[in-house]
Amino acid sequence: KKEVVMVSRPQGMPVEANFEVRRSELVFQVPPPPGFLLVKVLWLSVDPYLREIMNEDNGLTVIPPFQIGQPVFAGSISKVLASSDPKFKEGNIVQTISPVADYALISSEFFSIDKIEHTHAINVPLNQYLGVLGFPGLTAWVGLNVITQLQANEEVFISAAAGAVGLLAGQLAKLKGCRVVGSAGTDEKVRVLKEVYHFDEAFNYKTEKDLNLTLKRYFPSGFDVYFENVGGNTLEAALENIRRKGRIIACGMISQYNKEYKEREGVRNLMHVIGKSLKMEGFMVGDYWHMRDDFIKEVGELLQQGKISYHMDILGRGIDEFTKAFVGLLGGKNIGKAVLLTDDG
Ligand code: NDP
Q1: Burial class (CB in 10 A: 0-12, 13-18, 19+), 1
Q2: Domain count, the chain
Q3: Does the beta carbon of 250 lie inside 6 Å of ligand 1?
Q4: Domain CATH code at residue 107
Q5: Mutate which of 51, 132, 165 to test ligand 1's pocket (most atoms within 8 Å of Cβ)?
Q6: Which residue ranges does the record assign to the Enoyl reductase (ER) domain (predicted)?
Q7: Distance between CA atoms of residues 330 and 325, nearest Å
Q8: Is residue 143 in contact with ligand 1, taking CB distance under 6 Å?
């Protein structure tokens, strides 16, 4: 068995030395102890929030920080090798949170453990249950439908638009008849947003001098909804340009995750929330797990009808490449969902 353990807390961008791949001749008990499944991990989800919970003080208060010397956990797609829970049997494919490992013992009672049974009907690859049909997809869907209740013809700005959440959010907003502009960190991502995903406009935030002026250029009379994925100066520019009574879906603030809590950027114009009578609402997608069937039904149908599509980026192969994949994600290497393929998939 191999598993990734955090041996020191990253300072800034994570480095190889922060993690160790521990190998052990672990002999698993078969059948597993009551309430557990023995699984072979097939795919691991590489997610921004993992960086946040590597910080001792972090904003995700409901998720305890990773502890030094303990394995790193991530979303996974796994195959059941042995089960002591009658709800699961050998050969089942499950989506859950597991250690970043090739084999694992996981609780069959975890809140978001689920047998994947829709693949055939929806006809998407298994790993998309970590992407467009997984937590990132649910995040985009909840953000637009539940948090902000997006209406037809509204104008929407989405940051980190070429990522797993942003791509689906943009497509769902377009299907509602909205005008959608996205920001991303490379010219290639901008091209993909416009040409493949039919965003009305997109721009590279890294080559713009003043994001406030950039947003004025794309939204001369402001916008109604901001899907916030990055925080920092993008949030400041969005606050300047959002319309009165606008809504902000506070989904993520990735530009801050590599900074210690006390070094994080403040938002100097937060006062606009008052002056413009804005509504800014945050959420944790785990609280909406109960809506997953509705989400899978709706987004599954859209996928089947060819009305939405998805990208996936394999940023690493094998547990040993976890750090490479994770740094790749934080550095913006991915278009769509970033995943790690474990040894033999
Ligand atoms: P992505 O697939 O979007 O990957 C992260 C992307 O963020 C990178 O590709 C990079 O793209 C961009 N990025 C990295 N650093 C910066 C920076 N300093 N400034 C601006 N952009 C940056 O990840 P997800 O789609 O999984 O997540 C998107 C956001 O949603 C994250 O903030 C995440 O924490 C949040 N989230 C929140 C959830 C919730 O429950 N509230 C659930 C899931 C995700 P680029 O090239 O554009 O820089």
Answers
A1: middle
A2: 2
A3: no
A4: 3.90.180.10
A5: 165
A6: 22-340
A7: 9
A8: no
Q: Beta strand pairing status for 242-250 and 279-282? A: parallel
Domain identity same for 139 and 275: yes
For residue 343, give the DSSP letter.
Answer: T
pLDDT of residue 117: 81
Q: Is the CB of 167 under 6 A from ligand 1?
A: no
Gap from CA of 252 to ligand 1 centroid (Å): 7
Cβ of 185 closer than 6 Å to ligand 1, yes or no, is: yes
pLDDT in tens, 158-188: 999 999 999 999 999 999 999 999 999 999 9
* Dihedral (CA of 58, 225, 141, 40) sign: negative
Instruction: Spell out the residues 6+ positions from residue 211 whose beta carbon is closer than 8 angstroms to its own.
Output: 205, 233, 234, 236, 237
Helix, strand or coil, per DSSP, at residue 296: helix
Query: CA 329 to CA 163: how far, in whole Å?
Result: 9
Instruction: Name which residue sits closest to atom 33 of ligand 1, judged by CA.
Output: 252
> Which residues share a beta bridge with 107?
36
* Calpha distance 315→337 (Å, rounded): 10
The residue whose C-alpha atom lies closest to atom 8 belonging to ligand 1 is: 332
Say if residue 150 is in the same domain as residue 260.
Answer: yes
Q: Flag whether 306 is in a domain.
A: no
List Cα–Cα distances, 306 to 42, 124, 235, 298, in angstroms.
Answer: 27, 11, 33, 13
* Domain of 269, in residue numbers: 135-286
Among 45, 147, 211, 229, name the best residue to mutate to test ligand 1's pocket (greatest count of ligand atoms within 8 A of Cβ).
229
**Is the preceding omega at residue 33 within 30 degrees of 0, hence cis?**
no
What DSSP line would sit under 230-277, residue for residue?
A: S-HHHHHHHHHHEEEEEEEEE---GGGTTS-GGGPPP-TTTTHHHHTT
Query: According to the model, what pLDDT value does residue 345 have?
Result: 44
Nearest CA to ligand 1 atom 9: 332
User: What torsion, rounded to 10 degrees, do the Cα atoms 146, 148, 153, 154 define?
Assistant: -160
> How many angstroms does the Cα of residue 21 sit away from the middle of ligand 1?
26
Q: Which residues of the chain have pLDDT under 70?
A: 26, 118-121, 343-345
